[in-house]
Amino acid sequence: MNDYAIVNSDAALGLAQRTCAQCKASKKKCDKILPKCSRCARLSVDCSYPDPERLNGSDHGNDTAGARFEEVFERLRRIEAHIFPPDPTAQNESSQQQPSLAHLAQSHGIENPNPINWALEPGTLKPAYQSLILWQSILATLDEHKASVNDVIRIYISTTDRWLPMVSSIKFQKELALYGELTSSDKFVLLVLAMHLLISSPAHHPPAASLAESPWYRRCKYHWSHFVAFREPNIELIQSGMLIAIFEFNHCVEDRALTTLGICCRLAFLLDFDEVMAKHSAQDLGKLSDEDEEIILTWMGLTRLERYFNMPPTIVPKAQCMPLHFDNDPLSGRASPYSGPSIARFSTLEPDELAHSIYEYDAAQRNGRVQKFIRDHRYAAVSPELYAKVMVVLKDLDDYVAVRRAQMERDGAWAGIHVALGAAIQIQCFYVAKNTCTLDEQTMRSMHSHIEQMSAIISRCRIFHGFEENYLDGIQPTWCSLPYHAISSYRLIEEADTEKTLPSIDMTLFVEVLQTMAPKYRLAARCLELLELPGVMSS
Fold first, then answer.
1. CA 179: distance to chain centroid?
2. At 15, phi and psi to the nearest 5?
3. For 449, what's the count of Cα atoms within 13 Å in the CB-facing half-sphere?
4. Could you give the C-alpha distances from 111 to 102, 150, 213, 219, 498, in angstroms and in order?
């Protein structure tokens, strides 16, 4: 076992009071790390101390979690000092051949370089060392935020997990117990770090020029990138990347969200998530295992996020990684409904929660169909054939919304309807823009109806949840995209309806949603800027 990998060690953590027998016999310096000093670990020899040692004078079993964390920090600092010992000879040789640090910093536009914090050389950064640095990062981040891992998971479950369920409560409980003993897996620690990044308000981040420069964001993204490059792929790595991508999308972090999500998609294919989904869609194999259930939920989440990230204000959607599911030619008829495992085969989620996710997944697939159509036909000339294709896709969306509205009257579940309505408006706006921004009466009335229905859905949600404090925290990104799209589309209708033949729609609700989220989500603030609307609600 690697003695540096503290997360996989059940042994006591601390420092011995005396030099070990091997270092003493060899007259070598001993760092006195328990249970095995660094020199003995490096030479793979037995390490023994003269007397049984205790941690700071007390039994290991009686230490509190807080004291153990302090010991971990101390051990990390000592081990880091031994990972890269200074070599005076090499330093003298390199100083004669290389420009000074100050000169390099000046040529790169860096002020006041501080090499004291540059403790790592990438070529020697082994996985075991990365484990140490990851643990140091999560402990330091939680300490800076004055939060605990239980706080992070509690808030995550009450926000993001409500609309993007992936990790089962059983897994949370198991890993939390291990975390308290400092034996959690690296992949879970990384997942918690990503959860913390996503749930943290921008106001709580350490001071930085922007969230792209936030130390919390950099820590999380650097660790995730390193694990992607040098560790075996696993589902937690995909889930961590998804949460980082949501953060990047919500806060407009230099258009990195789709790239981060694209890496997650490739990892999912590498782990055969698509095969698991296909197998359980084609055959009724009884109750899903916890592992397969988590894979299917994560796969559905990847699909939804890719569609959400391509919604307005994006004008031309990017090429898709996640597959679409249609019967033969996507323009030959109706889109295929959800064909995955039945709700009865799942066991880790409540039926209502699962139905919500399936409805949203189904709507996202139809949204993806619209996005692919727009991308494939962005250079096509206006023609009767193009109009006919638009109407085929639009009819399928309208039929889907009608079915879902009927279901909503029975079960009250509005999930998926607003996304499908947004997709209908998106394909209509695409054709209007193609047709030199000419809005015919039929299209104008259809768009007006879609916006009215979208307003009703948002009103319904606010009636059910608006009394809750911060009820928009952690909500899915569509709640930024759809209000923006509704407002911009309604402006087209107002310009075209010169004779005021259509009843007016109060757009205040859409504006208020964006203004409520703008202080916490850069995406909402950007939508308001594009619409040239104030960023705060008027009193």
1. 22
2. -125, 140
3. 12
4. 9, 39, 16, 21, 58
Tokens of 24: 């003493």
Whole-angstrom CA distances from 320 to 17, 37, 258, 367 are: 60, 51, 10, 12
**Among candidate residues 25, 55, 53, 56, the one with its CA nearest the CA of residue 40:** 25
Q: What is the rounded distance in angstroms from the CA atom of residue 233 to the CA atom of residue 295?
A: 13
Beta bridge partners, 335, equal: 326
Which pLDDT does position 477 carry in this prediction?
A: 86
Q: Tell me, what's the pLDDT at 225?
A: 93
pLDDT at 444: 86
Domain boundaries, the chain: 1-63
Q: What is the CA radius of gyration of the chain?
A: 28
Q: What is the pLDDT of residues 212-246, one digit of tens each?
A: 889 999 999 999 999 999 889 999 999 999 999 99
Question: So what's the pLDDT on residue 539?
Answer: 41
Q: d(Cα 288, Cα 355) in Å, to the nearest integer?
A: 16
Main-chain dihedrals φ then ψ at residue 34, nearest 5 degrees: -95, 145
Topology of domain 1-63, CATH: CD2-Gal4 (4.10.240)
Dihedral sign for Cα atoms in the order 215, 219, 220, 221: positive
Tell me the C-alpha distance between 248 and 225, whole Å.
14
Query: What is the rounded distance in angstroms from the CA atom of residue 9 to the CA atom of residue 512?
Result: 52
Q: How many residues does the chain have?
A: 539
CA dist., res. 169 & res. 191, Å (int): 14
Q: Structure tokens of 9? A: 């060690």
Which pLDDT score, from 0 to 100, does residue 73 have? 61
Diameter over CA atoms, the chain: 99
Q: What is the 8-class DSSP label of residue 211?
A: G
Beta bridge partners of 14: 34
Give the pLDDT of residue 52.
46
pTM of the predicted structure, to 2 decimals:
0.76
Residue ranges of the chain with per-residue pLDDT less than 50: 1-13, 52-63, 84, 89-98, 327-330, 332-333, 467, 538-539
Distance CA 227, CA 234 (A): 10
User: What's the pLDDT at 6?
Assistant: 31
Q: How far apart are CA 401 and CA 414, in angstroms?
A: 10
Q: Tokens 């409805």 map to which residue?
A: 359
DSSP string, 343-388: GGG--SS-HHHHHHHHHHHHHHHHHHHHHHHHHHTTTPPP-HHHHH
**What is the model's pLDDT at position 113?**
57
